[in-house]
Amino acid sequence: MALLLLGLVSFVSWFFSMLAGAGSPLILIPLVSILCGSAAVAPVITLGMLLGNGQRALLLYDRIDWAATRWYLPGAIAGAILGAYCFSLIQLDWLQWVLALTLIGMALFQWKGNSSASSVESSTENEATENESQTHAPTTGAVIKSWHFLPLAFFNAVGSALIGSTGPILNPAYLGYGLMKEDMVATKAFHNGMLHIVKIVAYIYFGMIYQEHLVYGVVIGAAALPGNWLGRMVLERMSPEQFRKAVLAFVAFSGMFMLWRQAALVL
Q1: Number of structural domains in the chain
Q2: pLDDT of residue 146
Q3: What angle, rounded to 10 degrees, do the helices at 211-235 and 41-59 form?
Q4: How far apart are CA 180 and CA 108, in angstroms?
Q5: SS3 236
Q6: What is the average per-residue pLDDT within 102-121?
Q7: In the 8-state DSSP scheme, what is residue 207?
Q8: Most buried of 13, 29, 185, 234, CB within 10 angstroms?
Q9: CA dist., res. 56 & res. 67, Å (int)
């Protein structure tokens, strides 16, 4: 029953995360914590996210932005190794508070940017970049260049290795870079897949993955396939503006939910 429940929740979470650009870890982390214990959350979620994001990247492989990826990977590799090493020593509960407040702050900043730049249209969503230094036309107030993903990926990877996943924390950066809908989902899925590979290798090296973790991770990844497939069908029917609103709304919701959960644990 536990595995069946985990599979059903995973399917639902991957479906909605396709429409909002992120979100499956937010739904899965509390359940994994109940089933496996808090110490198993990071390894189990990492394995499940690797399988699910790998499927998603294959589904949308032709929409991946390689200019951002070339800057993202070095930062992600270094950050994942450092974060996994820190995870093997101590788990930082206060990081959840920092992440929650950061998510809410970024959502408010991006909404403010949208209101002050409402004339910016999303017609550039399918434009490809040939040059690494080229800046995409931003869909929000924040302007992100491809090289910005190097430091962003590093800090994101450190946090992801410590708590399992940082959820939609980089979504505003992808929007600011100019990626929308399938372009953003594909690029982020590939980035996350590469990040989780490094994290798993590091967890194994530092002795943080056990055999029982594999079953739960595989169930999460297997249930992601139908969720990703169905979510892609719905995503194709969404307008860029609907997608942008869904992404920012989920960023804010994620932050508030994490604050509520941490407050409940303290009380």
Answers
A1: 1
A2: 92
A3: 40
A4: 19
A5: coil
A6: 54
A7: T
A8: 185
A9: 19
